[in-house]
Amino acid sequence: MINPLVALVLVSFGYLGGRIDLGLHIRMFALEVYSLPMPHKGYVVAGLLVLAGLYLLLLLPLLAIATHERGESQKNDASNPTPIVPTSFRSELRRRGSYSMNYINDIKSHVMART
């Protein structure tokens, strides 16, 4: 069993609880950076800042879109009193009696029927 604090650290670094010894890798990376001359340390830090900036630049708009979509979905749920009953893809195929159709067309028709 993994220590919850270690799992939290792994998740915060983006490994989602993956069984990677992150401390060893961070220590090796810090040792490599420590052995570099000062201008190269600046390049490494600048590169890491650029990567973190790109990550945030890509992630923040996606967060805004997801928040907006959640709000729209909640508004639609409030205005539509009849709930959508989820059906399985297999039961939908059985209902239509069609196993020989193209798989992608089956999925598309199932999704379009629910919307």
What does the model show?
This protein is mainly alpha-helical and 115 residues long. The chain folds into three domains: 1-35, no CATH class; 37-83; 86-115, no CATH class. The chain has five helices and no strands. The chain has helices at 4-12, 22-34, 38-79, 89-96, 103-114. It starts with a helix and ends with a helix. Keywords: Membrane, Transmembrane, Transmembrane helix. The chain crosses the membrane at residues 42-66.
Topology:
Blueprint: H1 4-12, H2 22-34, H3 38-79, H4 89-96, H5 103-114
Number of helical regions: 5
Content-based structural category: mainly alpha
**Beta strands, count:** 0
How much of the sequence is in beta strands?
Answer: under 5%
Helix percentage: over 70%
Shape assignment: elongated
Mean pLDDT figure: 75
Model regions low in confidence, pLDDT < 50 over at least 5 residues: none
What is the end-to-end distance?
Answer: 43 Å
Keywords: Membrane, Transmembrane, Transmembrane helix
Transmembrane segments: 42-66
Compact description:
The chain crosses the membrane at residues 42-66. The chain is mainly alpha-helical and 115 residues long.
List keywords for this structure.
115 residues; 5 helices; transmembrane helix; membrane; transmembrane
